[in-house]
């Protein structure tokens, strides 16, 4: 799988990457599932943007955890994006299928490699990592799933097969490191062992088949 080397120091930086990297897929109408503060609303031009989430600044306030059907028509949006959101949901499979239903043409999904942030604290035997653990107070945000690069890739590929979606692009992003460091790591950890340790995110762009795009 192709890897793009980039670091997202903030959500804003990630949103700018999404806007630039996937701009060819953004036309007409766009649904942002799990938008939170909806930064893409101000970044994208000439796109009818709709963001949904339980908090932040969504256009439609919706708790995805309690949702069995998104409040939109089948094929209502030319493109639907869901960026690092599904891992927060117990019902991630059901929401994925709803994303497919409301998309007319393109679907863009990203999943984090949860092993990456957990690796060092576990190896050192101390420390914590975001979105997991046992906080004293109930957390407002946590991951419901703990998977690695290999599992994220297999999940995204299987969704393509089971839902008649064509994978237009699939790639990984990784924090930039000097090439000698990457080369040494790849000697130590060959194949997907390297990716399971160091890949940050797995991205997939799907296209619905023409028969599905024209179906009401």
Task: Walk me through the structure.
- With 216 residues, the protein is α/β, with parallel strands linked by helices.
- The chain has a single domain, classed as Rossmann fold (3-Layer(aba) Sandwich).
- The chain contains eight helices and eight strands.
- It has helices spanning 11-21, 40-43, 92-102, 114-124, 149-162, 179-188, 192-198, 210-213; strands at residues 2-5, 28-33, 47-53, 60-61, 77-83, 103-112, 165-174, 201-208.
- Strands 1-7-8-6-5-2-3-4 form an eight-stranded mixed beta sheet.
- It is globular.
- The chain starts with a strand and ends with a helix.
- The relative contact order is 0.16.
State the main characteristics.
single chain; 216 residues; alpha/beta; Rossmann fold; eight-stranded mixed sheet; 8 helices; 8 strands; 33% helix; globular
How is the secondary structure organized here?
Blueprint: E1 2-5, H1 11-21, E2 28-33, H2 40-43, E3 47-53, E4 60-61, E5 77-83, H3 92-102, E6 103-112, H4 114-124, H5 149-162, E7 165-174, H6 179-188, H7 192-198, E8 201-208, H8 210-213
Parallel strand pairs: 1-7, 2-3, 2-5, 3-4, 5-6
Antiparallel strand pairs: 6-8, 7-8
